[in-house]
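dumping this here before i forget
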Amino acid sequence: MPQAIRRPRDPHRPPRRLRRSPHPLTSIGASIRGRRLLVTHVVDQGRPVAHVVKELGCSRATGYKWLRRWRT
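structure:
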């Protein structure tokens, strides 16, 4: 089977960017900013933990653990 022929890259075209994850926590990790987002959404806005952690991309157990630590 012949190998695929690769076209040379166009020097005038900008390089491809990596796709960013739709979940904020995958890019910031389990940082203070991510924890603050969770706490403000759950405590201040009264949203369910399950909905917030799904948007942030972490587990429910992690969300409840962060809330427990914040409340103590």
